[in-house]
Design a protein that fits this description.
Distance between the termini: 22 Å
Radius of gyration: 17 Å
Shape: globular
Oligomer: single chain
Order of helices and strands: HHHHHHH
Number of helices: 7
Structural class: mainly alpha
Largest sheet: none
Helix content: over 70%
C-alpha cells in the first residue's frame, strides 16, 4: 500500500512512488532469502512441536543464522547506498539511496518476523499470526498518512521500518 499512498497523497506522487519502488524492489528480492530460510524451518518446527520437544535451541540457531547476514546486508547497504543504487538505476540516485538505506534496515526485522511467523504457523497459531499482520497493516497505514505528506518517499520507508520493528517485537 506504500506506493499507492505515496502516489495518491503527494502532488509529485508518481515520481516519489518510482523512487520508493526502486529501493523496495531490492528489499523484496533480498527478503526472499529470509523467506526461503524460514520455509525450511516449517517442517522442523512442526515435527518438534508434534513430539513436544523444545524449539528454543532451533529458534536461537535460526535467528543467529539469519540475523548475521541480515545485519551485514543492512549495514553494508547503508554505507554503500549511493553506489548500489547508482549501479542499478541512473535517475534520482541520491533520493533513491536515502529510501534504500532506510528500507534495508527493515530486512533485519522482516527476517525475525519470518522466523517467528513460521513458528506460529507450525504451532497452528493462525489467530495470533493474523492479529499480528492486521496490527502491522493498521500501524503502517496510519504512519504512512502521517509521514508521507511531510517526508515523501523517505517517510514511507520510515513507516515501513517502524512497522517491521513493532511487528517483529
Amino acid at each position: 500500500i506504500d506506493s499507492v499512498m505515496i502516489e495518491r497523497l503527494l502532488p509529485d506522487g508518481k515520481i516519489q512512488a518510482g523512487i520508493y519502488a526502486q529501493s523496495f524492489r531490492i528489499l523484496d528480492a533480498i527478503s526472499m532469502f529470509a523467506f526461503l530460510f524460514a520455509s525450511l524451518l516449517l517442517p522442523m518446527f512442526s515435527r518438534m512441536i508434534k513430539q513436544k520437544q523444545s524449539v528454543n535451541e532451533l529458534i536461537q540457531l535460526a535467528l543467529m543464522l539469519i540475523l548475521t547476514p541480515a545485519i551485514i546486508i543492512a549495514v553494508s547497504s547503508y554505507f554503500f547506498k549511493t553506489d548500489i543504487i547508482s549501479l542499478l538505476y541512473h535517475d534520482t540516485p541520491y533520493a533513491s539511496s536515502v529510501v534504500f538505506s532506510i528500507l534495508m534496515f527493515s530486512f533485519i526485522f522482516i527476517s525475525i518476523s519470518y522466523i517467528y511467523g513460521t513458528l506460529l504457523t507450525a504451532n497452528g497459531s493462525m489467530k495470533a499470526l493474523n492479529i499480528m499482520a492486521a496490527g502491522g497493516m493498521i500501524i503502517n497505514i496510519t504512519l504512512n498518512f502521517i509521514l508521507i505528506p511531510v517526508y515523501k518517499a523517505p517517510g514511507a520507508a520510515a513507516a515501513s521500518l517502524i512497522t517491521q520493528i513493532l511487528t517483529a517485537m
